[in-house]
Amino acid sequence: MRNILLQLDTDSLPSSFDAITALDAGAEVLLPYGGVTPERAVGLVHGAIFTRGPEQLHRTAIFIGGSDVAAAEAVAQAVTKAFFGPMRVSVVLDPNGSNTTAAAAVLAVVRHVPAPGPVLVLGGTGPVGSRAARLLAREGYSVQVGSRSLQRAQRVVEAVLLKYPKARLQPLETAGADALRSALGQVRAVLAAGAAGVQLLSQEMWQSSPVELLIDLNAVPPAGIQGVQATDKAAQREGKVCYGAVGIGGTKMKIHRRAIARAFEQNDLVLDAEEIYELGRQLDS
Ligand SMILES: NC(=O)c1ccc[n+]([C@@H]2O[C@H](COP(=O)([O-])OP(=O)(O)OC[C@H]3O[C@@H](n4cnc5c(N)ncnc54)[C@H](OP(=O)(O)O)[C@@H]3O)[C@@H](O)[C@H]2O)c1
Questions:
Q1: Which of 11, 198, 228, 256 has most ligand 1 atoms within 8 Å of its beta carbon, as the pocket-test mutant?
Q2: pLDDT, tens digit, for every residue of 36-70?
Q3: For the whole prediction, is pTM greater than 0.70?
């Protein structure tokens, strides 16, 4: 019996990144499907759970990816709903690398700044930033969710509060320099999860702030946090601890591979942000 991974991608072309990582992580056979919707997923799930006996089902697993997190979440819901009794396989959810990247970034925060922080997440409305905000809030951090739109930031805050009603989060509109400067005076860490190639924070601004930790997840020049190098991994710059996208990326890849390997150990896991973060924590300890 070989380890078979169904790669369900909501994009029309399944991600080559997710495919290669899956094969490196121990999937022996990869079945990639693109353009997966909740309706289409059900037949694929039936094909996966009815071909092997319950005692062999841990050798089949499902990875759900794609650039649209909400679409991937809807597929995940349909997938888990199609399971019944022992007829199920483990599922890993990592659309756009959001869970694995957020987990690696939050582990870096935990390493350097204890809760409650506070922490400012720039680009906090994207797949990675919103997951990072959720994980930080769950860890007891006080989180400012930054966005160019207060309304979009508020939506992320509300989504996290639905899951963790006692979480401490605030939306922050970062379009104006004054709001950003004022926030920098109050937080101990900044996690920049803005779009690729977009600078969100100038060096002049962070240099003169009391912030202790800077994490930038953008690997495409210019850097999201000016002055932070992509390869930084706990590098000291102007008295701040700095991580760049490549510095975080190594941990992200380890977590991603571990999540796939874990899915082949038993047949009843659903690995979403929190479960993936816990795997990362075990690797980190
Ligand atoms: N290091 C790694 O291993 C790794 C892995 C995956 C991803 N990444 C990187 O992590 C970052 C976050 O990924 P993602 O998919 O969550 O990003 P994303 O969805 O492309 O962008 C995140 C947020 O950035 C803001 N934004 C977009 N365009 C902007 C602009 N022109 N000016 C200012 N803000 C802008 C948007 O927030 P508002 O519109 O609300 O302001 C958006 O929600 C990316 O840079 C990605 O390349 C790194």
A1: 198
A2: 999 999 999 999 999 999 999 999 999 999 999 99
A3: yes
